[in-house]
Amino acid sequence: MTRVTATVPHKAPRFPRLRAEALAVADEATGRGHRTDPVLAGSGGPAGNARLTAWTGLVLLALLLAELVTLLDVRGLISWHVAIGVLLVPFALVKTATTGWRILRYYAGARPYRSAGPPPLFLRVLGPLVVAATLAVLASGIVLVAVGDERGHAALFTALGQRIDWESLHQAAFVVFAVVTGLHLLARLVPALTLVSARVRRAVGARPAGSVPGAPRRVTALAATLVAAAVAAALLLPLASGWHGDDHRRFGPPGSSADAR
Predict the structure, then answer these.
(1) Residue ranges of the domains in the chain?
(2) Which pLDDT band, with edges at 50, 70 and 90, does 42 fall under?
(3) Residue 186 Cα distances to 25, 61, 103, angstroms
(4) Is 245's pLDDT higher than 50?
(5) Which string of DSSP letters, residue by residue, matches 113-148?
(6) CA 71 to CA 66: how far, in whole Å?
(7) What percent of the chain is predicted at pLDDT more than 90?
(8) CA gap 101, 241 in Å, rounded
(9) What is the three-class DSSP state of 256?
């Protein structure tokens, strides 16, 4: 008698594209996968752009951590909260510009950037959300300081029965910012640390292997950004004086000690 063995067909995974994209993000986040950035003379090309973006991102991270410390007592640390918040703005604009330049060059068909390829799909979707949330929380914070306590708490409009003022807009922007930036940080921290500490194994013309042209330009850009940030902080810091005192405890993101009554 011939024995017939039934074979169970292999079940294809559901949503294979989403699974592949998720694995690509995980590989990049853990340093197992990365893009190869071409190195060009002059500015360094995609490799130089990636390094400037990484350095700017790490400076932003350090400032953000310092800003989070001020949330422990926004009222008592209001001057530090405002100063660090203003310092964040120029670096956030520079990082937006460097990533925006890379996106523009990629979709414009520039061969070096096309060769490097785009980031995983999930990060391409998350990127604009990070930029929008970052600019929203910084802009609303600056407006809140500039208009002062009375106008900062004056109702702008009513939505779903809730009174909305500049402070509530700042708080809402902070919540969105915390979520999307946290996801972005999980995906980008290891690659950024690897990028700024690793040497590129490639020679450019007569240059030694491992060098990326444009380092003086990148250092100058970071230094100029720091100077601009310091000047902006010095100009706006006096406006924070109106938020000192027991009558101004509400200034700050939700959940901070500034909400205490």
Answers:
(1) 44-201+212-256
(2) confident
(3) 10, 12, 21
(4) no
(5) HHHH-PPPHHHHHHHHHHHHHHHHHHHHHHHHHHHH
(6) 9
(7) 43
(8) 38
(9) coil
Measured distance CA(171)–CA(167) in Å, rounded: 6
User: Could you tell me the end-to-end alpha-carbon distance of the chain, in angstroms, rounded to an integer?
Assistant: 86
Is residue 63 within 8 A of residue 87, CB to CB? The reply is yes
**Residue 214's closest CA among 17, 12, 9, 48?**
48
- Tokens of residue 1, six digits: 């008698």
With a cut of 90, say whether residue 89 has pLDDT above it.
yes
Q: Report the C-alpha gap between 49 and 112 in whole angstroms.
A: 12
Q: Which residue from 137, 142, 138, 130 is spatially nearest to 57, judged by alpha carbons?
A: 130
Q: Which amino acid is at 62?
A: A
pLDDT at 179: 96
pTM: 0.80
Q: Check pLDDT > 90 for residue 237.
A: no
Cα(67)–Cα(151) distance, integer angstroms: 24
pLDDT of residue 36: 83
Q: Which SS3 state, helix, strand or coil, does residue 32 take?
A: coil
CA–CA gap between residue 73 and residue 231 (Å, rounded): 25
Average pLDDT score over the chain: 82
